[in-house]
Write a structure and sequence with these properties.
- The protein is mainly beta and about 280 residues long.
- The protein has two domains: about 120 residues, T-fold; about 140 residues, Immunoglobulin-like, CATH 2.60.40.
- It has three helices and 16 strands.
- The strands form four sheets. A four-stranded mixed β-sheet has the order 7-2-1-11, with no helix packed on it.
- Helix 1 runs antiparallel to helix 2.
- It is globular, with a radius of gyration of 20 Å.
- The model has no long low-confidence stretch (mean pLDDT about 80).
Length: about 280
């Protein structure tokens, strides 16, 4: 990309849910960014051509380079190299910079990354009104729809109380912010608030996304126990529109709920309880 610049969040391979806090974020003025890793699909698709073995050294590698081909090739290569060896390769490549998360928990940066890196904007720290590490996990599977004009849909997922008041924008995806009003119900409740950020991450199984709600409202304050409605709204460019919701009880015990399925997405699974990092 070229132009005024774009903020890119780098996905944390240890906290990989769609709306989890990022590892860091960078400002991309020109060029391309690519992330490789085995935390979404396993390491079996990342092979070291020198040995034929799967990636062993990096949980993830994010590369900024002058073009998409170079960024993708480098990020894949860094996953099968010793981190220090990978950094030397990046430093020897003109215009490249990289962040490597090693399997032993270290985050390594090439010399060019600090020039691109921005502070991560954190949420207010507050104890949740829910027990322990309870959170809501939303599993959303978008349907593959054929058609040369069909595009990735715009999505909004939010939590509201039983009166219909919006409590938390869980996530909003759109290619261009001007199309946000096409998420009709979300727009009526939220207006221009809550638009999502771009995230670079390893490729994942097609169509399946997982989101977390940590029990905080949009002001970063904890919500209390009770019933909440999780709403999913989808509007696909040159495609269809759908909205489904389900109510889940957030108390002292785990709970589950499921929305109806439709032509845009499968039945959305909603689970309340202690959240693990396994897919």
């Amino acid at each position: 990309m070229r132009g005024e610049g774009w903020d890119i969040h780098v996905c944390d391979p240890l906290h990989w849910h769609e709306n989890a806090a990022p590892l860091t974020r960078v400002r991309l003025q020109a060029g391309a960014v690519s992330t490789s890793g085995g935390y979404e699909r396993g390491a079996s698709h990342l092979l070291d051509p020198r040995t034929g073995s799967t990636a062993q050294f990096a949980l993830s590698a994010t590369v900024v380079a002058p073009n998409a081909g170079s960024a993708n090739a480098l990020s894949t290569a860094l996953c099968v190299m010793q981190p220090e060896e990978g950094l030397r390769l990046v430093e020897a490549t003109q215009g490249a910079a990289a962040i490597i998360m090693s399997r032993d928990g270290r985050m390594l940066r090439s010399q060019g990354i600090p020039k691109l890196e921005l502070p991560v904007v954190g949420r207010l720290v507050a104890a949740t009104g829910w027990p322990g590490n309870y959170q809501i996990q939303v599993t959303l599977t978008l349907r593959a729809i054929e058609g040369y004009r069909v595009r990735r849909p715009y999505e909004a997922v939010w939590a509201e109380d039983m009166s219909g008041k919006l409590i938390r924008n869980i996530t909003v995806w759109t290619e261009r912010r001007r199309w946000l009003p096409d998420l009709f119900e979300w727009w009526k409740k939220s207006g221009s608030a809550g638009g999502g950020a771009s995230v670079t991450r390893a490729t994942r199984p097609s169509g399946r996304y997982q989101l977390l709600w940590d029990g905080l409202d949009d002001d970063g304050q904890p919500v209390g126990p009770g019933k909440y409605r999780i709403v999913v709204e989808s509007n696909r460019e040159h495609g269809g529109y759908a909205k489904e919701s389900a109510v889940i009880e957030c108390g002292t015990q785990p709970a589950k709920a499921t929305t109806k399925e439709n032509g845009e997405f499968a039945a959305v699974e909603i689970a309340y309880g202690p959240v693990s990092q396994s897919a």
